[in-house]
Every structure is written in C-alpha cells, then in structure tokens.
Design a protein that fits this description.
It contains two helices and 37 strands. The protein has a 16-stranded antiparallel beta sheet that branches. Strands 1, 2, 3, 4, 7, 8, 9, 10, 11, 12, 13, 14, 15 and 16 form a 14-stranded antiparallel beta sheet that branches. Strands 34-33-36-37 form a four-stranded antiparallel beta sheet, with no helix packed on it. Strand 14 and strand 15 form a beta hairpin. By secondary structure, it is mostly beta strands. Helix content is 2%, strand content 53%. The two termini are 56 Å apart. The protein is elongated, with a radius of gyration of 29 Å.
Length: 497
C-alpha cells in the first residue's frame, strides 16, 4: 500500500503560504486507488474548459461506465436476458462531473450534491453551499506528498463526504463513507503511480520480436472449419518524433485451415497460406489510431472505467467495453475489458433505444483483448454466432529479455510435405488415420503435442520412413518434436477427418 501523506504539523490557523490552491491542473491526469493498493481504480482529468469570467472556469471531467441499479430492464434491442448487468454510459466519477473555480479562491464540485470548497479559510470555519450542503474545515496541516512538503486542508460535509486537498497536488483523498479514494499518482507531473499511455504499451526497439499463435472455428451450415495461425513480428527500425514513434516491422505469417462435414459426407477442403511482409507500425503516444495495428479500438480510451461506445455497429446497436488497469506480479499494468457482474467475463455492451444505459450479457457476442505495459498486445478471445477463437502471445524478445521459444521463419512458412526443418518430412498434410515420417537423421524419441505444449502421443526409437497411427487424435493442429543425435527438430501437422 502506498502511504503518500505524513502529517508533521497541525495548527489553528491557515498556513501562511497556502495562497494559490488549484484542485485540478487541466493538463494533468490524477490517478486514484479505492482499495489502498497500487492499482489505479479511477483516473480523473479535464476534458473540456469553459471560460466564465476573469480567472473563473468550468472544467468538465471525464466520464466512466458504472453499474446502474435503478435503470429500466433493457428492451428487445439488447435481448431479453435476465442474467445481465445494466451499465449506465456517461457516468460521473466519485468527484462528480464538473468542477468550477472562481478566481482560484472558491471551488464548486458538482455531482449528486454540489460541494463548495473555499481554499483560504481558517480551521473550524463553517459555510453553507449551494443546495444547503454544510462544510467545515476540520484540520489544517503540512505533510509530505510524493516526496515534497505541501499544505493540506481537510473538510467534512453534511452529506457524509470528507476530502483532503493540497495546495500543490489537488485532491489527495476523498471518502464518501463507503469508499476511500487516495491519490497515488499524477500523469503530467510524473509523480507516483503512472497510468500507461500508448507508448508505454507499445514501446519497442530494433531486434524485439512478438510471436502470436491463434486458433478458431466457424461453420457455414454444411462444414465446420478449424483454423490455426502463427504471426511473428520483428522490429527492424524505430524513428521517434514529437508525440509519436514509427517502427518498420517484418511480418511472417502462416495459416492452416481444415474442415469436416456437419452432417453426411459433404466435401470440406482445407488450405494453407503463408507470407512475408514489411509493415509500418505507427504509435501515437497519447491515443490510439489505426496506424497502430497491434492496438485496437478497445484501447481508444485507456483510463480505468472508460466506456468506449459507438466504435462499431452490428445491426442497430453500438458496442463498447469497460476498461480496467491492474498491476501484475511483475509490476506491469494490464489493460483489458472487464465486466462488472458476477460472471467474471468481459462483455460487449449494448445501448438501448430508451435510455443511456448499457447492457452486458454472456449471451451477447463476447470479445476480450488484453494489453500489458512494456509488452503490448498479449491476447484476445472472441465468441460470436457460429464463430469463435483465441489468440495469445506465444513467445517474445523485448529489450533482450526472451520469453518462450521463437519459431524460425522457415518453420512458420513451410507447408504440407515440405513442412518442418531440413531433413524432416511429415505427410500427408492434413492427415486422417496415419502419418508418415521421413528423417535424414535417426530418431531417438518423438512427441506429438497440442499447441499448448501438452503431449498427446509419445514414442521411442527411430522413425525413419515409418508411420504412426494417429486415429486416436482429435482433429486440429499439432506440433511434432523429434529428438535426434543432432538435436531437436520440429514440424507441424494437421489432423482432419
């Protein structure tokens, strides 16, 4: 748990140098935790400014998606599911949605209640703000905030809210009697816990490698088709400019497909494609753009609780995703879609035609894309009508640190009877009941594994020009590993019936 505040002095009058208080710097983003940990639960920042007069401004704050317990049941456009959670789009932060400052001496925070915050009043001062809310200064102190000495005031309100503000750091804490929000970092002044931006998520250097493996399935009513693919991206060069970084990337990709009839003996042919390309990856530092092909529309808004809607439309309903940032065991922030219900799944959300609520249900199309700071895109899952699949980061080299086994380009690009490393041939591809292995080097042992590395069949002894009965293997893609006197050789195979 981060402890940012250490009171060292409490007095009965205002601190002499507390004259230029600012609860919000419109160029900063303020990161809060509501559980006492380093996980950022809320990020608050200014999205729009209206000038009201000399040194008086209206600041509009960013909005979030929140559970709505009082919203009406979604109508037909969102389905008739009883197990979904209703979300309100455009919800307010715990501070409310608007902050108004009058010459920097008095602030109004407008949410369910309007709280008036005069900044230059003495300990014990009491006032009545708009709507009859009473406030009182209960403590004045100096404390260390993010390693620097700051002037603090604590105010209690008749609504049950209690907040502590600082001259240089804004709102340090806010309690509404249910949750305590503690400021743990400020993006902009680079203090404390920093919520990642796009460059933090996609920060690569020449020689970095990202290898993804995926598999999925679909049907056209006559055949069910399975598909497996490998995509490897190698960073060739990097060029930085103000606000953006551009990479040249080598892409090596292959995809297998195979089919089987849903009924009868309908022909369902499979196929294989592979290619090499050089791509330009453009990363704008503070927001997502289509130039960043490793990103996604889901990360168009990164802040915790962000609800990104109307990013694409299926029939009549725009979809969106609630995003959350959490710290993993390696100290990296993970960014991913998170539902707010008891299912523990990530749901697409559907806008009703009668309210600004959103509806999430496992029965709706489901997509979850996950990102990790300093690594980038790490995986996705999707489930749609008659289509499903997943993709994950299989191996990587990032700034010299390798995770997993990187596949050679030849391994990815090879197909059919030429599949595998030099001196190794497996056929036919795809196979049904039996495969034949021809190896130029005597084999000491062999293993057929699924794509997760789990052994499906194991054998000992030479396999030169011998066959293996694979009738017990379920349909799908596999990797065959042969141990020889010269080392380990690998090849891929497909079982299709």
């Amino acid at each position: 748990m981060r402890t940012l505040l250490l009171s060292i002095a409490v007095g009965s009058c205002a601190i002499a140098h507390a004259q230029n208080w600012a609860l919000l710097n419109p160029t900063y983003k303020y990161n809060y935790s509501n559980d006492g940990s380093d996980t950022i639960s809320n990020q608050i920042f200014v999205t729009h400014i209206d000038t009201l007069g000399v040194d008086s401004f209206r600041y509009e704050l960013n909005r979030i998606g929140v559970v709505c317990d009082t919203c009406p049941t979604p109508n037909f456009e969102c389905g008739s599911f009883s197990d979904g959670t209703i979300f309100r789009n455009d919800g307010e932060q715990f501070t409310g949605g608007v902050a108004i400052t009058a010459s920097g001496s008095t602030w109004l925070i407008k949410g369910n209640d309007t709280l008036m915050i005069p900044v230059n009043v003495a300990l014990g001062s009491i006032w009545t703000g708009p709507g009859g809310v009473i406030g009182m200064v209960t403590a004045i102190s100096e404390a260390s905030a993010f390693g620097t000495l700051d002037s603090l005031r604590t105010i209690a309100y008749s609504t049950g809210d209690t907040l502590t503000m600082a001259r240089d750091h804004g709102l340090l804490s806010w309690s509404n009697g249910i949750l305590d929000h503690l400021l743990i970092g400020i993006n902009g002044s680079e203090e404390g816990a920093q919520f990642p931006n796009m460059l933090d998520m996609f920060d690569y250097w020449p020689g970095d490698v990202l290898e993804y493996h995926g598999e999925g399935g679909s049907t056209d009513g006559l055949c069910w088709y399975g598909r497996h693919w490998i995509s490897k991206f190698t960073i060739l060069s990097r060029e930085d400019a103000p606000g953006r970084s551009d990479y040249q990337v080598r892409q090596v990709t292959s995809t297998y497909s195979w089919g089987q009839p849903v009924f009868g003996s309908w022909p369902c042919p499979g196929d294989f494609f592979s290619w090499v390309d050089t791509l330009n990856l453009g990363v704008v530092h503070d927001h997502w753009t289509p130039e960043n092909f490793l990103g996604n529309r889901w990360v168009a808004k990164l802040w915790p609780g962000a609800l990104d809607t109307a990013i694409f439309t299926d029939l009549y309903t725009p979809y969106g995703m609630v995003l959350k940032a959490e710290i993993d065991q390696d100290g990296h922030y993970t960014i991913g879609g998170r539902s707010l219900d008891a299912w523990g799944q990530s749901h697409l959300l559907c806008t009703t035609l009668t309210d600004s609520t959103l509806f999430g249900s496992p029965a709706l199309d489901d997509m979850d894309r996950t990102y990790v700071s300093r690594i980038g895109y790490t995986g996705s899952d999707y489930l749609a009508f008659e289509h499903s699949g997943s993709e994950h980061l299989f191996a990587s080299i990032i700034r010299g640190m390798q995770t997993g086994d990187i596949s050679s380009d030849d391994f990815i690009l090879s197909a059919g009877e030429q599949d595998g490393e030099e001196g190794l041939r497996v056929y036919p591809v795809p196979a049904d009941q039996e495969i034949f292995i021809a190896s130029a080097v005597p084999t000491e042992s062999w293993t057929i594994m699924d794509l997760g590395g789990r052994p499906a069949m194991i054998g000992l002894g030479s396999l030169s020009s011998n066959s293996i009965d694979v009738s017990v293997l379920p349909t799908g893609p596999y990797v065959m590993e042969l141990v020889t006197a010269n080392g380990v050789m690998r090849t891929r195979l497909i079982i299709a019936r």
